[in-house]
Amino acid sequence: MPAPRKTALKGEQFEQNITKRGRASQGKKKDKYPVGPWVLGLFLFVVVGSAVLQIIASAQRGGFF
Questions:
Q1: Rounded distance, CA 45 to CA 51, Å?
Q2: Which of 4, 18, 63, 65 is exposed most, by the fewest CB atoms within 10 A?
Q3: Composition bias, kind Basic residues: at what positions (predicted)?
């Protein structure tokens, strides 16, 4: 007795999908940054601001050179 039509269609879909297994999509994950723009901006503000303040304090003490 032949397999019902629905079972045959599912089998065909399975056979077509077998070559695609285990492959992750490369689309959207590469475009995203690991941190948000606000966190990156805050980090840059703190790092650059502390460097500028350290340079100013060092210049006022006379220990620049």
A1: 10
A2: 65
A3: 20-31
- Give how far the C-alpha of residue 54 lies from the chain's centroid of Cα atoms, to the nearest Å: 33
**Cβ contact 15:23 at 8 Å:** no
Residue with tokens 């269609």: 9
pLDDT at 16 over 60: yes
C-alpha to C-alpha distance for 32 and 54, rounded to whole angstroms: 34
pLDDT tens, residue by residue, 28-46: 556 667 888 999 999 999 9
Tokens of 56: 């100013």
Confidence band of 25 (pLDDT split at 50, 70, 90): low
- Cβ atoms 4, 12 nearer than 8 A: no
**DSSP letter (8 states) at residue 25:** P
